[in-house]
Design brief:
single chain, 371 residues, alpha/beta, Rossmann fold, formyl-coa transferase, domain 3, 2 domains, 6-stranded parallel sheet, 3-stranded antiparallel sheet, 15 helices, 11 strands, 14% strand, elongated
Length: 371
């Protein structure tokens, strides 16, 4: 029985940054055999959790011998992952039409910013650009203030999650048909899909077009962060009535603000009053007072504090690997383990990579047409 869900699955990754490598890291954590192709001289020289779980080969696709070997590896892969703009792989002679004719079981996973079609498909972009198009960037701001880039975690790494999800769907469907398919994953699609909660509120008439005036964008007193007396913050997510009641009880404001939870006209007043009370104690003092209070109030950690958080420690959510702290693999399965892959550099000569997958095909039943 397999130790990990993707044991036996082979992934050929063409080197890129951001979303596509993140997806391949997730596949490696699940047990996939991932070979990453780098240009000559561009293999990383130091351990990198971002490119964990990889065997790295270098190939010059303008060299006929290298090209032939890469093409053979592609015909032995279950999944090919590329993150180039539309048309690049076709110009290299490695597009879906070039490979799937002789290898119909190949899952061809394409990760782009804007998608394979549409007027922006060939434009460059980064996470913030996709958030700008989707409406997310304009929505992440306090009232009267400029939008704040929310790191690169929504479109970029959300896009990687979408790509990994699509690969899983295609591999699952292949178990029945024996055929792969092409996955068109776009970071712009991911940004919009992750905004589903906002679109639901809009459909219900509960979303205003003014940033910072809604229930989840800092407009509400019960969903906000408040500064403490020592310059730290407490996060308040007391959206449900019983949690809001518990928030007010701990703050000593049960009578004063009880009727203001759903009165948008008085939200600014309620926020000011709650902020005044939070400013009277330290973060540590408020953390103690809210422990077990059932109010959805937690201390706001700085990045350097996360690994020492009691819950993070108890679940081993941050691991030390090669002297680097990094998030553990997730989700947690009851039988087949996901495990943060080794971040060490594992270079392999191109011809050895070909022989490795040839030998595997010769000694075991192929996975690609039966999975």
């Amino acid at each position: 029985m397999s130790d990990r869900p993707y044991d036996g699955i082979r992934v050929l990754e063409f080197a890129g940054l951001g979303a596509a490598p993140f997806a391949c890291s997730l596949l490696a954590d699940a047990g996939a055999d991932v070979i990453r192709i780098e240009r000559p001289g561009e293999t990383p020289t130091t351990p990198s959790p971002t490119f964990r779980g990889r065997t790295t080969i270098e190939a010059d696709l303008k060299n006929a011998d290298d090209y032939a070997r890469v093409r053979e590896i592609a015909t032995r892969a279950d999944v090919l992952v590329e993150g180039f703009r539309p048309g690049v792989m076709e110009r290299l002679g490695l597009g879906p039409g070039d490979l799937t004719h002789d290898h119909p079981g190949l899952v061809y996973a394409r990760m782009t910013g804007w998608g394979q079609s549409g007027p922006a498909a060939h434009e460059p972009g980064h996470d913030l650009n996709y958030l700008a198009m989707s409406g997310a960037a304009r929505s992440i701001a306090r009232e009267g203030e400029d939008p704040v880039p929310p790191l690169n975690m929504i479109a970029d790494y959300g896009g990687g999650l979408m790509l990994a999800y699509g690969i899983g769907l295609a591999l699952f469907e292949r178990r029945t048909t024996g055929r792969g398919q092409v996955i068109d994953a776009a970071m712009a699609d991911a940004a919009l899909l992750l905004m589903s909660g906002l679109w639901q509120r809009k459909a219900e008439g509960r979303w205003t077009p003014v940033p910072g005036t809604n229930d989840m964008d800092s407009g509400a007193p019960f969903y906000n962060s408040y500064r403490t007396s020592d310059g730290h913050y407490m996060a308040v997510g007391s959206a449900e009535p019983r949690f809001y009641a518990n928030l007010l009880r701990v703050l000593g404001l049960p009578d004063e603000l009880h009727d203001l939870q759903n009165d948008r006209t008085r939200w600014p007043e309620a926020k000011r009053r709650i902020a005044d009370v939070f400013a009277t104690k330290t973060r540590a003092e408020w953390t103690t007072l809210f422990a077990g209070a059932e109010a959805c109030v937690t201390p706001v950690n700085a990045v350097e504090e996360v690994a020492s958080d009691p819950h993070v420690r108890a679940r081993a959510m941050i691991l030390d690997q090669n002297g680097i702290q990094f998030p553990a693999a997730a989700p947690r399965l009851s039988r087949t383990e996901l495990k943060l892959s080794d971040s060490s550099i594992r270079p392999l000569a191109l011809h050895d990579a070909v022989e490795q997958w040839r030998s595997a095909d010769a000694t075991q039943q192929p996975v690609k047409e039966g999975m």
